[in-house]
Amino acid sequence: MSFGHLQPLFPGESGVDQLVEIIKDDVAGCLEYNVDLVEELDRKQNASVALPMDTFKCHLIREPIGVVGLITPWNYPLLMATWKVAPALAAGCAAILKPSELASLTCLELGEICRELTPMLTRLHSLEAVPHKVMIAAAQNVKSVTLELGGKSPIVVFDDVDIDKVVEWMLFGCFWTNGQICSATSRLLVHESISEEFLEKLVKWAKTIKICDPLEEGCRLGPKVSAGQYEKVLKFVSTAKSEGATILCVGECPQPSLVMLLSELANDTHYGLGAAVISKDLERCERVSKGFEAGIVWINCSQPCFSQAPWGGKKHSGFGRVKKGRIYGFGSVSDPTSFLEGTSSIITSQEVVYEQDVCSLAKYDGKLKIRGMRTEDDWMDMK
């Protein structure tokens, strides 16, 4: 059985054909990228350092930092494992991978493949760990930690957009890969002058998402990862309703749920993983994007990611960055923010699907918050 058939057995993603393409492009692409970085690292060995005195010379030798412990979530189990294992191995480190107990099959298969290539590789089965326990354990041994802890990401929509295209981006950014995605732009802030039409189309499109067995052709929404997650989503909807929210779209799980709440600010959250802004006014987009308290900012798009760009969050979404640069093991004074912009005016998510072979619409795991707004200052919390 191929990776593409194994992955839908764990409900982070749906659609075998799409997953085969994701594995071929994203997973293989990540491995190939890190192979290229190895060659770059080799070229930088013994690199000279300019000194203010000619009587001294200096050069640098980079060495692996040692054993790297890697804990990955149940959504994107194979891709998340590749993101972390590939740079660790490329840097010459030993990697110990602890996948989620809810979605470990593809990671175990990855381990079997690595075992064939590296006979010394062994499996490690570990108890569930939480971030603060990891940090405490690391601090006691003076070890560095990088944490990516998910988020509650906003998407801000202004009144100068093509509503049909942006509704598509909204659904793509929120329900892609069953909605079980750390960076899902699940909090919508839409300009009040277009809010009525926008919400009408959003609800209509959400109800057309195909819900079925993830191995069935054309699947866009599969099951939840566990009974606990199922109950959690139902509780989110119930809590929102008890707090006065308007339920725009809800049904028996895994029916996508759309919940409307008022008085929402883009930065009004403990999290800071991703954020998106959509407008035809690129100067406005630039101003707004710089005000987000997030590690990844999308401009006129939502969710594209690349091995070449850093990935990570701010605030309770964690600290440190994965992907490019992790191979060198450098410490940094501050974490960079990635700005990814759709360059051909406002492209559709389907264009991204075709160009990047990413998975399409899927489910939602939380509350979609919507409010009318008038100006940038209305919603942006500039603390």
What does this structure look like?
The chain has 383 residues and is an alpha/beta fold. It contains eleven helices and 15 strands. It has helices spanning 3-6, 16-44, 77-90, 105-117, 131-140, 163-175, 195-206, 227-242, 282-291, 349-356, 376-379; strands spanning 47-48, 59-60, 68-71, 95-98, 147-148, 154-157, 187-190, 246-249, 258-260, 271-272, 274-278, 296-299, 314-315, 318-319, 338-341. The strands form six sheets. Strands 7-6-11-12-15 form a five-stranded parallel sheet, with helices on one face. It has a two-stranded antiparallel ribbon with strand order 1-2. Strand 6, helix 6 (163-175) and strand 7 (187-190) form a beta-alpha-beta unit. Helix 2 (16-44) runs parallel beside helix 3 and helix 6 crosses helix 7. The longest helix is centred in the first third of the chain and has 29 residues, at 16-44. The protein starts with a helix and ends with a helix.
